[in-house]
Amino acid sequence: MNSETRYWPAVTCVLLMVIVALAAFHHYGTNRRVARLATEIAQDSGLLNEAVGSSLSMGIFVHGRVGEGADRGNADLEIPVHGSEGRGTLFAWVQRDRGPWRICSLSFRSKGGLSIVIVADETSHCARE
């Protein structure tokens, strides 16, 4: 085996790891961008002030699925949030159709079991895909 062919498996492995890392960062960035929109809408609604306090912060790990095409997207996310008075999870259904992302359904459940509907899916005029 000559020196040129000896390095190809290592080079291929490194390239695959870089591709996987870039895909993970893209997915993480998209999840965070959509989750940030849901968190801002929740904070602006004023309904969460008693449950978590006036300053709502998003947790690090956003769970869920974001599917995007050329001009459309659909996301179902669970967003951990906390504030000065408590913590819980935002449940967001978000869509994009030839424009910016928009909230279709947004609710909150505190660690203590309190549930708040911030945006009802019945009034959002979104269609499940």
Write structural notes for this entry.
This protein has 129 residues and is α+β, with helices and mostly antiparallel strands. It has 3 helices and 6 strands. It has helices at 3-6, 8-45, 49-52; strands at 57-58, 63-68, 72-82, 87-97, 102-110, 115-119. Strands 1, 2, 3, 4, 5 and 6 form a 6-stranded antiparallel β-sheet that branches. The N and C termini lie far apart (53 Å). The model has no long low-confidence stretch (mean pLDDT 82).
Distance between the termini: 53 Å
Portion of residues in helices? 25-40%
Biggest sheet overview = 6 strands, antiparallel
Structural class: alpha+beta
Number of strands: 6
H/E series? HHHEEEEEE
SS field, number of helical segments: 3
Question: Which tags fit this structure?
Answer:
elongated, alpha+beta, 129 residues, 36% helix
Give the SSE map.
Layout: H1 3-6, H2 8-45, H3 49-52, E1 57-58, E2 63-68, E3 72-82, E4 87-97, E5 102-110, E6 115-119
Antiparallel strand pairs: 1-3, 2-3, 3-4, 4-5, 5-6
Q: Brief description of this entry?
A:
This protein is 36% helix and 34% strand. It has helices at 3-6, 8-45, 49-52; strands spanning 57-58, 63-68, 72-82, 87-97, 102-110, 115-119.
